[in-house]
Design brief:
The strands form 6 sheets. A 7-stranded mixed beta sheet has the order 15-16-17-14-13-19-20, sandwiched between helices. It is built from 15 helices and 23 strands. Strand 8, helix 5 and strand 9 (169-173) form a beta-alpha-beta unit. Helix 1 (40-58) crosses helix 7, helix 3 crosses helix 4 and helix 9 (265-274) crosses helix 10 (294-306). The protein is an alpha/beta fold and 481 residues long. The radius of gyration is 23 Å and the shape is globular. The chain folds into 2 domains: 2-249 and 456-479, 3-Layer(aba) Sandwich (Aldehyde Dehydrogenase, Chain A, domain 1); 254-445, Aldehyde Dehydrogenase, Chain A, domain 2 (3-Layer(aba) Sandwich), CATH 3.40.309.10. The structure holds nicotinamide-adenine-dinucleotide (NAD). Residues 146-150, 155, 173, 175-176, 205-207, 210-211, 214, 225-227, 230, 233-234, 248-251, 281, 384, 386, 412, 452, 457 line the site of nicotinamide-adenine-dinucleotide.
Length: 481
């Protein structure tokens, strides 16, 4: 069986403790590779390699670093088909999703930050008594980057690219559930002749490798994307050390559909609910529909969801693949049962799905599931399921829609569908979250701040926000006579 390696000081190496864990293909339900179960010994080595690389890397010019990022982009581009296939097998996601959305975004991450650092500028404030106040931005040192399994290489490189572009070196801990593309990325870093130690990757469980990384005393900066409970644990672990922390966490995002919504709202809300098997933090898992069109919308929604082609991720016609793991399958099964207990009516799905493809009979598939009839306070409507389960509920008017949209502990995103721009703008202003889409969903511009409010996180990634996060501003005041 293939063994994935850690990437430390420019070399791909086995874990110090010699321990491995299964890497499972969720569409077939069986292991197909072995991942290092690294611990603090590997993290110590990786941090030491990153510290050794830091003086030279942080002294490189913006032009040199931009050139290295573009070299990485080109090396990724040469391997894009292999990366898409690896993402598809590792995560159970349709090959079309990996090939047409996720790997292109990996390329964009490097292209964007290579350009961004070259167009960046700093402030200067001419003051009284012939003083000039300059703001210098220095990299923060060795940064710790922790990423989840739902968009593995996309989210890993969304952190690596700005971190190294701004002159930091890094130790990344990808999700143990989907380690394969991070492993291929290590090979790509070698092919692109990235200086040794600038990027280091340690595979392993969160409680071991992840905890060792965030608690390492040389790691002063932690960028984390993952679940809210993990984010809370990390926040309390790093607080006494006054580490700089960015947290991109879960969501329970409303899709708000008014009775004058454009026709595209139906298809878009189906995709927002079920894309990547509901395993995108930005999925619209709570649909709120104006009472006047509620019955007809629900009927049409179920008809459209029924048409989704669930099955073998390797099949180019598949729209919905498997869940990422047995744990995620069990979670969806539990939440479907909970929805019933809470008095919900399941209009579609609600159970494990057995695809026609023989090889996928034991895969972790779950049918797209539509639940109605629940109170907004029901746990099914409040908790992030991260599976193909959507709730639909009616609202009376604009104020009621806003109240229901905000009736959650999360605040990541919302999408609003109406042809009345005044109404849309009022809702956009009143919903407490980091991103609002009007008559669209999942449109991402890499220049805009990205992040959540409430339990969806702390801080922002993207554009200038990422450049600021990975640098330390210093005010230098010069008096000239
Ligand atoms: P998770 O929190 O279980 O794991 C995320 C990462 O943290 C993994 O690499 C894991 O190994 C590591 N980890 C776990 N415990 C740790 C600890 N104690 N110390 C350090 N690291 C630790 O999340 P997941 O299940 O991999 O991902 C799904 C979650 O991620 C969902 O809640 C989803 O909404 C969220 N997410 C958020 C965004 C966003 O941008 N807001 C994007 C994608 C996913």
């Amino acid at each position: 069986m293939q063994r994935i390696g850690n990437y430390i000081g420019g070399e791909i190496v086995p874990p110090v403790n010699g321990q491995w864990m299964d890497n499972v293909d969720p569409a077939v339900g069986r292991p197909y590779a072995l991942t290092p179960a690294s611990d603090s010994a590997d993290v110590d080595r990786a941090v030491a390699a990153a510290e050794a690389a830091y003086p030279a890397w942080s002294a490189t010019s913006v032009e040199e670093r931009a050139a290295v990022l573009m070299r990485l982009r080109e090396a990724i581009d040469r391997r894009k088909d292999q990366l898409a296939m690896a993402e598809c097998i590792d995560g159970g996601k349709p090959i079309t999703r990996a090939r047409d959305h996720e790997i292109p975004r990996v390329l964009s991450n490097f292209r964007y930050f290579a350009a961004a650092i070259q167009h960046n500028h700093s402030e200067l404030y001419p003051g009284a008594n012939n003083t000039l106040n300059m703001i210098l931005r220095r990299p923060r040192g060795v940064v710790g980057l922790i990423s989840p399994w739902n968009l593995p290489l996309y989210l890993l490189t969304w952190k690596v690219a700005p971190a190294i572009a701004t002159g930091n070196t890094c130790v990344a801990k990808p999700s143990e559930v989907t380690p394969m593309t991070a492993h291929l990325f290590a090979e790509i870093c070698r092919e692109a002749e990235l200086p040794a130690g600038v990027v280091n990757i340690v595979h392993g469980r969160g409680a071991e490798a992840g905890a060792a990384l965030i608690n390492h005393e040389s790691i002063r900066t932690v960028s984390f994307t993952g679940g809210t409970a993990t984010g809370r644990a990390i926040a309390s672990a790093v607080a006494p050390g006054f580490k700089k922390l960015s947290l991109e966490l879960g969501g329970k995002n409303p899709t708000i559909i008014f009775d004058d919504a454009p026709g595209a709202a139906l298809q878009a809300s189906v995709m927002a609910a079920f894309a990547n098997t509901g395993q995108i933090c930005l999925c619209g898992s709570r649909i709120l529909v104006q009472q006047t069109i509620y019955e007809s919308f629900v009927k049409s929604f179920v008809q459209e969801a029924e048409k989704l082609r669930v099955g073998d991720p390797l099949d180019g016609a598949t729209q919905i693949g498997s869940l990422v793991s047995h744990d995620q399958l069990q979670k969806s099964i539990r939440y479907a049962a909970l929805a019933r207990e809470e008095g919900g009516r399941i209009l579609l799905g609600g159970e494990r799905f057995r695809p026609a493809a023989e090889r996928c009979r034991d895969g972790f598939f779950f049918s797209p599931t539509v639940v109605v009839g629940l109170d907004s306070k029901a746990r099914t409507c409040q908790e992030e399921i991260f599976g193909p389960i959507v709730t639909i509920a009616p609202f009376r008017d604009l104020d009621h829609a806003i109240a229901l949209a905000n009736d959650t502990g999360y605040g990541l995103s919302a999408s609003v569908w109406t042809q009345n721009i005044d109404k849309a703008h009022r809702v956009a202003g009143a919903v407490d979250c980091g991103t609002v889409w009007i008559n669209c969903w999942l449109v991402r511009d890499l220049r805009v701040p990205f992040g959540g409010t409430k339990q969806s996180g702390l801080g922002r990634e993207g554009g200038d926000e990422a450049l600021r996060f990975f640098t330390e501003p210093k005010n230098v005041c010069l008096r000239v006579n």
